[in-house]
From TrEMBL, chains A, B:
<dbReference type="InterPro" id="IPR003722">
    <property type="entry name" value="Cbl_synth_CobH/CbiC"/>
</dbReference>
<dbReference type="Pfam" id="PF02570">
    <property type="entry name" value="CbiC"/>
</dbReference>
<comment type="similarity">
    <text>Belongs to the CobH/CbiC family.</text>
</comment>
<comment type="pathway">
    <text>Cofactor biosynthesis; adenosylcobalamin biosynthesis.</text>
</comment>
<feature type="domain" description="Cobalamin biosynthesis precorrin-8X methylmutase CobH/CbiC">
    <location>
        <begin position="10"/>
        <end position="205"/>
    </location>
</feature>
<keyword id="KW-0169">Cobalamin biosynthesis</keyword>
<protein>
    <submittedName>
        <fullName>Precorrin-8X methylmutase</fullName>
    </submittedName>
</protein>
<dbReference type="InterPro" id="IPR036588">
    <property type="entry name" value="CobH/CbiC_sf"/>
</dbReference>
<keyword id="KW-0413">Isomerase</keyword>
Length: 210, 210
């Protein structure tokens, strides 16, 4: 029958070697490179080398939060699914997404806003400080609004909404308005898988893989 | 404050118009185009125009299965998360993923295979005929093996594993060995988000969006 590698970690290790060989010149630090490589790994798209933005000091800030057992909020269930549960558990961290929450759906309908926006409001009420956006520009805008109003105090944000209407703009605004540790995917690309990959890369810096 | 569109369906409709305007010349049928556009929508990557492969007759086959309330198997929880639950419900379809299943994890460990492979075995035992692969080349290979051995009879397959070790090869093999309705992403690109997008595009052909 067909011959193929059957060990996941072996596949992943070899993948990262190939990515390193093919990505060419860069100015990333060793830790930044781990994030960039993982976004390429999850998409098969070397363009991520050019569009991942990591504000100085953001990796250290994220690592501190993760070590402290932070609660993470994601804008989609897909991003939540993509975050490694074993690593989360080892770090005593947790991840929440409220877009399917009935109360949030009701509030969104009543107020004519997206469930993504209502979800962020609830997360802020819950005291979340670590936000991961892989899909919804509206969620990222809502966090900016709440921050500007002094209602939210995010300590780390992954801004990776994907798309053609508002996504690129939302990330550009976030870089300007959120003067906090932040990782973004510039332009139209991004996605829940990319957002989760960034969180996983950060977790694997502070916890052993299984 | 910032002005931005807050209606998800309006954002999606406008996105599809923009994608259509920017993607340029193509030879896709109207239904094929819906799949291709949705993969671009979920990734922000126009390269999908060149790498989506849809075997003739595959869309009709998938639509028939969906109308019949089929059980879908996905190789990742992320792909499962990305499939629209409201549309699934309207179609009386369901989606399963066994990689986090304890029994499957035990079998995988005992036999030294991936949980993805053991998950496919269990899905085949359960009589699943509609398979969606967004991550694991090993799972796609396992389905090919079981099919060659006469143990599995898949009726529709989405082959979209992403990556640098075995992913492209697994999809090339699948196109050759699985002479059934199939949609693949050629080359290294793909992913759970892309796999889910393909299923959603197919569902939206037979059921109204909310």
């Amino acid at each position: 029958m067909m011959e193929y590698i059957k060990k996941p970690m072996e596949i992943e290790d070899r993948s990262f070697v190939i990515i390193g060989e093919e990505m060419g010149e860069h100015n990333f630090t060793e830790e930044e490179l781990k994030i960039v490589k993982r976004t390429i790994h999850t998409t098969g798209d070397f363009d991520y080398k050019n569009i991942v933005y990591i504000r100085e000091g953001s990796i250290d800030a994220a690592k501190e939060l993760l070590k402290g057992g932070v609660k993470i909020y994601t804008d989609t269930n897909m991003a939540k699914s993509g975050i490694n549960k074993m690593a989360l558990k080892k770090l005593n961290c947790s991840v929440e997404c409220y877009v399917s929450n009935e109360e949030v759906a009701k509030i969104a309908k009543e107020r004519g806003i997206t469930r993504s926006m209502a979800g962020v409001e609830k997360a802020v009420e819950d005291g979340v400080e670590f936000f991961v956006f892989g899909n919804a520009p509206t969620a990222l805008y809502k966090l900016m609004e709440l921050t500007a109003e002094g209602k939210a105090s995010p300590k780390f944000v992954v801004g990776a909404p994907v798309g053609f209407v508002g996504a690129a703009e939302s990330k550009e605004e976030a870089e300007k308005r959120l003067q906090i540790p932040i990782v973004t995917i510039r332009g139209r690309k991004g996605g829940s898988n990319v957002a989760a990959a960034i969180v996983n890369a950060l977790m694997y810096m502070v916890v052993d893989r299984e």
